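Morning F.,

Quick status update on the modeling queue. The single chain you submitted on Monday has been processed. Sequence for confirmation:
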Amino acid sequence: MRQNLFEEQYNELNTTVDDVAERARSLGGKALGTLVEFSQQARLKEEPGHVPSARDMLVNLLADHETVIQQLRVDVETCADTYHDMGTNDFLTGLMEQHEKMAWMLRAFLEGPSVYGSASAECTRRSQTGTPEPGRTSAMR
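Structure tokens below.
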């Protein structure tokens, strides 16, 4: 079950990356194309050398989705209020909804009848307080 969940998340996020690149290009921007460019622009941080447990991977992924959702809420308002760009506002709203759905699925899995217990509540608390998972760096730049 966990493998399918990760595969679904991967496929969703892979499609999202393509959609974001297409949106950037449609607005006359440049799509990022190298790992260096991605890492320089990333709002979420990697954890080189740290191999989390399966449970912690799910908790970390949920926390990252929640971080992205919070940032997208700010970006949606900025697009509408500052730039009056309702097309990008709508695009970002759609991305936010996708991340909310993925976070919901992770929460449901973590809260389900499994060995993962109340990891979702722990993840939500960390996301709200900005407290990283032990061994993790801060999720936001």
